[in-house]
């Protein structure tokens, strides 16, 4: 049996924070980045866990992210807020904007946060979960860089373009989904490549435009959207709303900026928060109670709610710690020693 090491969430957070601090990130940036990476590992989302450290560090060393930048909140009192990340990683920018976004949504019913000039590497569910924790429903979306072919196309043009939604549940973990508009996250293909395993059919096409199950060919070619033309349309919507509309880079522009897909992408992000109470006011009935009736009906058919496995993994990690393989521990120690 492979040797494993079990660390508490706090212990792993300290290690990851130290790695980023030693590599030039400010305390604000290091703590925010470490928090979302450890959250991925805690929730058994390996493709967004400590695997992401290497790409973040490569991006810092390439000079494509500003590790000491202080995000700036721009607030004119309207329902539209903006945070200029100033070229830094996105988690710190969101952390600064989220409390103001939440209060504005509670006051006005709906509010939006545009994060500009950020380097994005993480899942979006930590962000929508932060807002559900404040009693709000939330949508988050962002482009990436061109690695996905549009439906009917043969070349990468769109990003993996994730979309996340969260709904607060007073006595349960929130209802949350977070998925790429590609069939799978690019990180999943990379993990298959590292493990020497083929990817499932229908995930990608090779450089010649034909279907492939070889992760090397997939990474050199293009990923496919989920649901064919439907995923392609949603992905394009995200390019428009979280790219063109907020005055930031679309996926093709982000790839031009970086010149490679080996670094974390640079672009913007759009987060929209909703107050269910404000929207339901005067209509009768409690929106949260009505939502629970829907969730109960779903579960009553034997179906599961999205993120249930992730929340179960979180409970286990908080109770028993996060188990890392010998290879994963060696990777962390190598990062610590190299700084």
Question: Secondary structure elements and their pairing?
Answer:
Layout: E1 4-7, H1 9-22, H2 27-42, H3 52-61, E2 72-75, E3 80-84, H4 90-108, E4 110-119, H5 125-132, E5 137-141, E6 163-167, E7 175-179, H6 186-195, E8 204-205, E9 211-212, H7 215-220, E10 222-223, H8 229-244, H9 251-258, E11 266-274, H10 276-280, H11 287-300, H12 308-320, E12 322-325, H13 326-338
Parallel strand pairs: 3-4
Antiparallel strand pairs: 1-12, 2-3, 4-11, 5-6, 5-11, 6-7, 8-9, 8-10
Structure report:
This protein has 339 residues and is an alpha+beta fold. The chain is built from 13 helices and twelve strands. It is globular, with a radius of gyration of 20 Å. The chain starts with a strand and ends with a helix. The strands form three sheets. It has a seven-stranded mixed β-sheet, sandwiched between helices. Helix content is 45%, strand content 17%. It has one domain: 2-Layer Sandwich (Ribosomal Protein S8, Chain: A, domain 1). Keywords: Oxidoreductase. This is Ldh family oxidoreductase. It holds the Pfam family Ldh_2. Belongs to the LDH2/MDH2 oxidoreductase family.
